[in-house]
Structure to design on (281 residues):
């Protein structure tokens, strides 16, 4: 297949390039192509003539989105509209990457694929707008929602926890944000399977199981051999930031499991990630 990836230098884009090695892949990112520039994205997708576009590019800094909501909508909402219209024009399927932050995060039972979108912050609102654009424009589209993504080389939670643990020997991490830590490599491999199915729809690609940020940090410390580091549990209200994350946006994979696509438990994925980081050092 000919596959075109936006956000190709990001965590998921990089993992996809590795997972799709058997395909003809074109990667784009800033500064070469801005998805908010309709003419540029039409021209680039037109030149590549892809069978499938995997749209990972996004303004992913949630606090930045809170400070600049119009920019968040221009990149995540209108940028996705541009990508979807270019797919329509050039006859490509689309895999749109969304997020768990399209949900309110107040349902203690978590979220299945069909539940209504109710974003509570600007990032989530811009990503919910993106999903609406995709559904209005394209019939041949997959919407994939990961959560709490991490990848080698990425600016992610694990990287931040290990840096802080090593530099200061103590941590303060929130207990009232619960989600599914998810390895980008596993999402990329699941997407590689999904695009063979032509089973268009909405999917939750998260590693199985869930935990709070505090529990996630404890497991990172345990697996990294840093159990002497003090990890103090705190509440989100004690940790000032521009954006408010959904407190309990746990995703359940029901649709992908029904077609045989399941992601392993998050603790196993974390072990694999830490192993790959150590072997790259
Ligand atoms: N990270 C998470 O925890 C998480 C969780 C759930 C869902 N997601 C979703 O998963 C997808 C991939 O996330 P990720 O973690 O791989 O993100 P990432 O590492 O931040 O990569 C996103 C890429 O998009 C690029 N980009 C930003 N604005 C752009 C624009 N206007 N035009 C073209 N490219 C642009 C970024 O470039 P710059 O770096 O130069 O800005 C970056 O290379 C995103 O759609 C995100 O919303 C992420």
């Amino acid at each position: 297949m000919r596959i075109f990836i936006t956000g190709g230098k990001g965590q998921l884009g990089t993992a996809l390039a590795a997972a799709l090695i058997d395909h003809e892949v074109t990667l784009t990112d800033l500064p070469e192509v801005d998805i908010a520039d309709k003419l540029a994205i039409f021209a680039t997708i037109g030149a590549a003539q892809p069978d499938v576009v995997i749209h990972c590019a996004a303004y992913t800094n949630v606090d930045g989105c809170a400070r600049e909501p119009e920019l968040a909508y221009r990149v995540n909402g209108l940028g996705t509209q541009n990508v979807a219209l270019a797919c329509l024009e050039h006859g490509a399927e689309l895999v749109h990457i969304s997020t768990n932050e399209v949900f309110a995060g107040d349902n203690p039972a978590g979220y299945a694929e069909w539940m209504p979108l109710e974003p509570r912050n600007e990032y989530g609102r811009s990503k919910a707008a993106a999903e609406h654009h995709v559904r209005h424009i394209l019939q041949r589209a997959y919407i994939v929602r990961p959560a709490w993504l991490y990848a080698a080389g990425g600016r992610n939670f694990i990287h931040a926890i290990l840096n802080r643990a090593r530099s200061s020997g103590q941590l303060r991490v929130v207990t009232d944000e619960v989600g599914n830590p998810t390895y980008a490599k596993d999402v990329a491999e699941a997407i590689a399977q999904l695009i063979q199915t032509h089973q268009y729809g909405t999917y939750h690609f998260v590693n199985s199981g869930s935990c709070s940020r505090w529990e996630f940090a404890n497991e990172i410390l345990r697996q990294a051999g840093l159990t002497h580091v003090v990890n103090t549990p705190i509440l989100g209200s004690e940790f000032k930031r521009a954006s408010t994350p959904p407190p309990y946006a746990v995703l359940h994979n029901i649709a992908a499991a029904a077609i045989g696509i399941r992601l392993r438990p998050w603790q196993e994925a974390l072990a694999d990630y830490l192993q790959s980081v150590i072997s790259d050092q």
Q: What stands out?
A: The domain at 2-156+181-209+249-264 is CATH 3.40.50.720 (Rossmann fold). The pocket of NAP is lined by residues 6-7, 9-13, 29-30, 34-36, 56-60, 75, 79, 97, 99, 127, 146-149, 154 (CB under 6 Å).
